[in-house]
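hey
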């Protein structure tokens, strides 16, 4: 069973890249200007280390926007502002503009599980929202997958030509048994979500930071005893109703909404029109929520051209990144879904569609 968290990966990378310099302040004037006002798609990738070869490769592909790790879990609250500005400045020096953070800017596991210490994590979260806003970073992609990250049961399934991709099989997951947290009910998870949303959304409103909820991956409940609640469009609407706000929205991870059984074309149209989609994860899968595998971006069942047309036509304005690409020949499979070879294809594929259809992007 492979349980993965993006935050752990990118937080360690940013710490390694910046070390003690991470808390040395950089003035906002030194950082690249915010791109939040630019129309259309912002082609982006998720990185923790601004000095990595992957960042250089992305720049060579023409990608200039980054979803960044901040390393805030390693510093005091009072250092959040200068840490964020320093990370932003470091990426600016690499030619990249930070347009958001993903998988929580600070540790949030106690919040999701509703255990002792969550109020301290929520207070940290509020400080983080303010710090991001002061640096001109106005989007947080958060998830509510308690106890587990996005989960796969294999990461070496052959895709086209023998490329390696990830798979989830509910029967294999059941064989793993319960996590150390035992059974956590849906009622408990809804209580935890409501507590979190009611606490942080007023701060997000005040500082104009968009909270983009990421669907559970896979979108089924329970998983190894822990309930999951971001598993349908109906449940998202329940979250919207907890705190009606233009800052309360969605990371539209296409494949997860497809696995939910939603009409993703209609849903993308609805939520883009309502300005609820703040961030797009552009990916595809083959199968059902009980058993599926990732595909290359040009090799799955979803009409990816149509999806980009819908986002553009109905006014999407924000970051989009190709998520979970297979590992291709010559690459180590030590970062399943996050090696860059498959992303080279994905970015070329996306840019080709956008160029052919004259969809605005940067």
């Amino acid at each position: 069973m492979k349980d993965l968290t993006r935050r752990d990966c990118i937080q360690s990378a940013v710490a390694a890249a910046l070390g003690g310099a991470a808390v040395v302040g950089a003035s906002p004037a030194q950082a690249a200007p915010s791109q939040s006002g630019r129309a259309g798609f912002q082609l982006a990738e998720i990185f923790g280390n601004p000095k990595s070869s992957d960042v250089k490769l992305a720049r060579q592909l023409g990608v200039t926007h980054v979803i960044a790790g901040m390393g805030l879990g390693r510093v005091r609250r009072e250092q959040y502002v200068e840490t964020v500005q320093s990370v932003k400045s470091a990426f600016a020096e690499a030619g990249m503009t930070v347009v958001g953070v993903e998988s929580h800017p600070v540790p949030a596991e106690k919040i999701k599980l509703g255990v002792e210490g969550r109020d301290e994590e929520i207070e940290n979260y509020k400080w983080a929202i303010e710090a991001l806003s002061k640096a001109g970073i106005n989007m947080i992609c958060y998830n509510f997958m308690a106890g587990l990250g996005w989960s796969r049961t294999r990461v070496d399934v052959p895709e086209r030509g023998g490329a390696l991709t990830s798979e989830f099989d509910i029967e294999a997951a059941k064989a793993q048994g319960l996590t150390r947290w035992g059974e956590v009910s849906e009622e408990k998870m809804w209580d935890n979500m409501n507590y979190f949303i009611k606490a942080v959304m007023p701060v997000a409103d005040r500082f104009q930071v968009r909270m983009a909820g990421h669907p559970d991956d896979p979108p089924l409940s329970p998983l190894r005893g822990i309930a999951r609640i971001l598993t349908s469009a109906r449940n998202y609407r329940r979250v919207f109703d907890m705190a009606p706000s233009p800052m309360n929205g969605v990371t539209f991870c296409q494949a997860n909404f497809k696995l939910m059984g939603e009409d993703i074309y209609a849903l993308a149209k609805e939520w883009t029109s309502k300005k609820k989609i703040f961030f797009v994860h552009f990916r595809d899968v083959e199968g059902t929520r009980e058993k599926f595998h990732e595909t290359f971006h040009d090799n799955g069942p979803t009409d990816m051209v149509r999806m980009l047309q819908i986002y553009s036509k109905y006014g999407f304005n924000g970051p989009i990144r190709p998520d979970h690409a297979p590992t291709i020949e010559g690459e180590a499979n030590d970062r399943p879904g996050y090696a860059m070879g498959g992303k080279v294809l994905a970015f070329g594929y996306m840019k080709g569609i956008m160029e052919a259809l004259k969809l605005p992007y940067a």
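Residues 308 and 354 are 8 Å apart (CA to CA). The radius of gyration is 19 Å.
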